[in-house]
Each structure stands twice: as C-alpha cells, then as structure tokens.
Amino acid sequence: MKDVVRLVISDLHLGSAYSKEDRLYELIANVKCDELILAGDVIDFIKVPTFTKQTAALIHLIKSLDCRIIYVIGNHDYVLRDFVGSTVDGIEFVEQYDFEYHGRKYRIEHGDRYEKGVVHWRFFMNMFSIAQDWIERTFKFNLAAFYVRNKKRKLKRIWDIVKWNDDVDVFVMGHTHKPEALIWVDHNERIKTYVNTGDWVDHETYVIIKDGNIRLKNYEKAEDNYNEDG
User: Fold this and answer.
1) Overall average pLDDT of the 158-182 stretch
2) What SS3 state is found at 148?
3) Nearest to 23 by CA among 230, 224, 219, 221
4) Average pLDDT over residues 97-126
5) Which one, of 71, 64, 154, 56, lies nearest residue 114 by Cα?
6) Which of 188, 185, 156, 151 lies closest to 173 in space, CA to CA?
7) Among residues 177, 165, 174, 171, which one has the least CA distance to residue 203?
8) Average pLDDT value for residue range 104-110
9) CA-based angle 10:57:32, to the nearest 5?
10) CA neighbor of 178 nearest in space, from 160, 194, 202, 154
11) pLDDT band at residue 123 under the 50/70/90 scheme
C-alpha cells in the first residue's frame, strides 16, 4: 500500500503585509504530497487583506494540486465557518482533522480555542486587526512578529491542551506562530507527540507526515531538499 504523505502548514495570513507568499509558492510547488492540510489563518480576513498577482498565483496553484486539500478554520478566517462539513471547489472545510496513520491517532486543529482573552471577542479583534494592518503598512513594521517574540500569549498550559486531547497520540496545531515540538511517554507508556506548525509571517516552518514519522521543518534550511528525502 502506498504511504500517504501529508504537508501541514498554518498561519499563512495571505493578504497581510508580511505574508511570505512567494516562498509559500515555492514550497507548495516543490513538495510532493497526497494531502495538503491548511491548518487555519490561511487568509487574513479580519484585517484589510491586499491581494496581489502572487496571491492569485498561489491560490490557483493550491486549487490545481493533484491531492486532497483540507482547510481547518482558524480565528482569522472564521468567516468561512459556514463551510465546515462541506467541500467547496475541491477543498474540504473542517474544524479539526482526525486520522490514523501507522497505528497512531492524529489530530490537527488551529489552536485558537486554547487561548484565553480578547482573541474570542470578534468585534474587538476586527477593529484591532484593522489598526494593526494600518500600522504595519504605514510604518513598515512587523507588529505581529514583535508581539509574538516579546509577549507571552495567554495560552493554556501545553499539558492542559494535551490532557484535553488524550484520546490521540499526535496533536498538531498552529495559532501561536511559535514552531515547537515535544515528545514524551505518558503514564500508560504510550509515546505522545505535540507539534506547533509555526507560521509564514515571521518563520517559514511546516510539518511533513511521512514514512510513519512527523517532522517539523524550516523551509529556509530545507529548500535544497524539495522532495523531502532527508
């Protein structure tokens, strides 16, 4: 049986001032996969997105891929929630994606539901994001990256997140823009894995699920190995 290769990317923030759309195009065009999983905050609807020819080329590329495409809704693209449970133009919209692979249970979410505070105040976040977009474009300052690097997000402790997802062996999320991975053995001697995919505003990170393994990768460091053989 052919092994299923999955590419997981999140927090692309297409249309925002600092989204690396040209680099994303290179990644998606060159990494071969059977499933492309877009794990939330793909299009930055809550700002004032500016779409370019590069944005159009990237969206066209994604739609033309010969693979399954799964779109996990995030907090920046929550306007697409009405599509959850349906397939639109070949793209499957979900709140979370669960699957089994090489005897392990996987779950992929965006991760915003684990954050406390104003992130859930829709009107406030819209107004804040519009102001943030104006600042970034006017003063050429990556405010989102500054925020992530210098302020702790009010995210529930990773162990609480893991506890709530104890029914799976591998839990993958984005949202925090902080690429990280954690592997441990629980009290039942099961190997558990947590991976945060990072983002494509400040970092250029992604996840490959292949050959029974899950790998967190940095595109800048792996760009000479497009076929993911290493």
Assistant:
1) 87
2) helix
3) 219
4) 80
5) 154
6) 156
7) 177
8) 97
9) 55
10) 202
11) low
Phi, psi of 179 (to 5 degrees): -65, 130
Phi, psi of 143 (to 5 degrees): -65, -35
> The tokens of 218 are what?
């940095």
201 versus 140: the higher-pLDDT residue is 201
Per DSSP, helices labelled H in 48-196 are: 53-64, 122-139, 143-150, 158-164
What are the strands, taking DSSP E only, across the chain?
6-9, 35-38, 68-72, 87-88, 91-94, 97-101, 104-108, 170-173, 180-185, 191-196, 205-210, 213-218
CA distance 88 to 85: 10
pLDDT averaged over the chain? 84
Residues ≥6 apart with Cβ < 8 Å to 36: 6, 7, 9, 28, 62, 65, 67, 68, 69, 70
Is the pLDDT score of 5 beyond 70?
yes
Looking at the chain, the number of H-run helices and the number of E-run strands are 6, 12
